[in-house]
Design brief:
Blueprint (H helix, E strand, L loop, with lengths): L1 H28 L1 H7 L2 H22 L2 H11 L3 H28 L1 H9 L5 H26 L3 H25 L5 H23 L8 H11 L2 H23 L1 H12 L2 H19 L4 H28 L1 H9 L3 H4 L5 H18 L1 H6 L5 H23 L1 H23 L9 H19 L7 H20 L7 H7 L7 H9 L7
Length: 503
């Protein structure tokens, strides 16, 4: 029974991953375009503009999509689902229209504040439309997640990101449109996602509204806003402070190096998409906690392997992706392993939020993330003037480390989970041994050095095997995960329970 739920989570995570894969892969595949055809300053402009987008999303959403995940996952009545969804959607629509009009009318001022020039005002006008389209489409994606229609979610995301990738390459490489091409491509892909999901959303959306329901949704969702703002502060304050201390070129260098860490961020993102609905779908709370413990072990092993891969080939990735401009990025190659480890810890943070969702304790999240944000800003102010972009990377790692430790001890009071500490220790020790080994050969770009690093990297799974990391019969269960597509229909029905399919 326990592994059935692990299997269901794995299936939905894998399918969500197919859709989000290209979203993050877009950032990786476009590195040669951005690094070779755009200057570090232009990459800095892109990073700073998207920092504004990320913070704006919080004001547009007000945590209502988080609230929909919680409330629609446990709502059994069709009419109740329609009322909750419609109330949230009409609220988001009104907020989105008002805020986008404000951004559009303030485009010139925003361009001066963020990009130091009114010539970029048109970019913020494009951003105003993107924010509105994403606000209108995100509840539809949430509906797919809650009803565990991961295939629809993945298909739309996949086409959306493919469209954005193709348009960006065309407009930059062939049309020479520079940094503006990135935002035009985003606008077109966001419009596609909204139009593609309209038929699904409109099946549930009704011209109904309830103020008591809105208060109930906001009571759960609003506490996510300060915590999400603090998370963004952790991820984006370094861009703003780098611009202040070192200029836009440093921001652009950090932005490109962050893109090499996107595989780990992608893993945590698709995991997050399936995590909350998957845990809430397990009716037995004791069994849910057992699943949380087992998933933590599997995540730690897989994420550590990915960390080792990205750390081992950090220099090679920069040389391959940045071409003739690699010399501008190589001095800061140490950013890649540090930021990748930070993203690994962010995945553990997501796992720890299982108790928050299950027990409805979202009000404590702002304190946890606020603590991390404070650590991040403090370390950035201390380290960036001394270490440059590498200081920003260490600040991100410190912030996520503090958050994981604090949330771990806090959630144990109301959602105790018997984590598999011995197995987690094996993963940590084996990963440390392999990392030390490959670090000695990192500067060696010769064929023999590359082969040596590959051999040392392969030692990680063999060390775990030799230490009896897998329990008796567990390997056979894990192998079943690769046969998930054959049983997808059966498990989708099992995991959805008796929740009605709202027409």
């Amino acid at each position: 029974m326990r592994f059935r739920h692990v299997k269901s989570l794995a299936r939905h995570t894998a399918v969500y991953g197919l859709g989000d894969l290209l979203g993050k892969a877009t950032g990786i595949l476009l590195v040669p375009v951005y690094a070779r055809l755009l200057s570090p300053s232009e990459n800095g402009d892109m990073a700073l503009a998207y920092a504004f987008v990320s913070f704006s999303v919080l004001l547009y959403a007000l945590g209502l999509n988080h609230a929909l995940v919680r409330h629609l996952s446990v709502e059994r009545g069709a009419e109740g689902m329609r009322l909750r969804f419609s109330t949230a959607y009409w609220t988001l629509t009104a907020i989105g229209v008002l805020l986008s009009l404000l951004v559009w009318s303030s485009a010139a001022r925003l361009a001066i504040v963020f990009l130091n020039s009114t010539s970029y005002a048109d970019i913020f006008q494009i951003i105003a439309v993107i924010l509105l389209l994403d606000t209108l489409s995100e509840p539809f994606f949430t509906l797919c997640r809650v009803r565990q229609r991961s295939g629809t979610y993945a298909s739309v995301r996949f086409v959306q990101h493919t469209l954005q990738l193709g348009l960006t390459v065309y407009l930059i490489v062939w049309e020479g449109n520079g940094v503006r091409a990135i935002f035009w491509s985003n606008l077109v892909s966001s419009a596609f996602a909204f139009l593609a999901l309209c038929p699904i959303g409109f099946r549930v959306l009704r011209p109904i509204y309830s103020k008591p329901i809105l208060r109930e949704l906001l009571r759960f969702g609003l506490p996510f806003v300060p915590s999400a703002a603090a998370l963004l502060l952790i991820n984006l304050s370094d861009r703003l402070l780098l611009k202040f201390f070192l200029g836009k070129d440093a921001v652009g260098i950090l932005q490109i190096l962050f893109r090499f860490c996107l595989p780990m961020q992608m893993l945590t993102r698709v995991f997050r998409s399936a995590w909350a609905p998957g845990v809430l779908a397990i009716p037995d709370r004791a069994e849910a906690r057992t699943v949380v413990a087992r998933v933590t072990t599997y995540y730690a092993a897989g994420a550590t392997l990915l960390l080792l891969v990205l750390s081992t080939f950090a220099r090679d990735l920069i040389l391959l992706g940045c071409g003739s401009r690699a010399s501008e990025y190589l001095p800061a190659q140490g950013v890649i392993p540090v930021v990748t480890l930070a993203f690994l810890l962010s995945g553990l943070y997501i796992i720890l939020t299982a108790g928050v969702y299950a027990e409805g304790r979202s009000r404590m999240l702002p304190l946890v993330v606020g603590l991390g944000a404070g650590v991040n800003v403090g370390f950035n102010l201390l380290l960036i003037p001394r270490m440059g972009v590498l200081g920003a990377a260490w600040s991100t790692l410190a912030a996520y480390g503090v958050m994981v430790v604090f949330l771990y001890f806090h959630t144990r009071r109301f959602y105790p989970v018997a984590y598999e500490y011995a197995r987690l220790a094996k993963v940590a020790v084996a990963g440390g041994i392999v990392y030390i080994g490959v670090s000695g050969f990192a500067p060696d770009a010769s064929p023999s050095g590359l082969v040596t690093r590959c051999i040392l990297l392969l030692a990680f799974p063999f060390i775990l095997w030799g230490w009896n990391f897998l329990e008796s019969g567990e390997w056979q269960e894990i192998r079943q995960l690769f046969r998930l597509p054959k049983q997808a229909g059966v498990e989708a029905r099992e995991s959805s329970g008796d929740r009605p399919d709202v027409p």
